[in-house]
Prior knowledge:
Elements: E1 4-8, H1 12-22, E2 28-32, H2 35-44, E3 49-53, H3 61-70, E4 79-83, H4 88-97, E5 101-104, H5 109-148
Parallel strand pairs: 1-2, 1-3, 3-4, 4-5
Helix pairs in contact: 1-5, 2-3, 3-4
Amino acid sequence: MSETVLVVDHDMIASAIVRQALSPRGIRVIERRNGPAALLWLESHDADLILVEASLPEVSGPDVCRQIRATERTRHVPVLMLSNRDRFADRAEAQAAGADLFLVKPLSALRLSQLVQRFLILRRFEARRAELVALSGSGRAAREAAGRS
């Protein structure tokens, strides 16, 4: 199954650039134009990574990020914040909201693809590590139960 990246950006051209950078690498790209639509999609779907424009209409990118971090099923999904502005205040707000990385547009398709792939590799690694920890815990419980009988 391919990995899914949710792109939350009101700029259709920016979303198209992301899609063109990631789709050829087998990454499924889902696009939403605003924060409420993205949060609604996340209620019933899983994303492996989320790209959020900082200056979204209706609900800001940092506010979307805060809501993602406040929700149990999405709090561990990497969030990359995108912005047309490279100001310290914007970076600080993104970091305070829980963004994993702040990126300034325009971003080359190659650089974006490399960054997304790195975060997806880390996410796969963390998922596998969690599986192994769970297995070792259940194996320990089985050994302890066998030792008691």
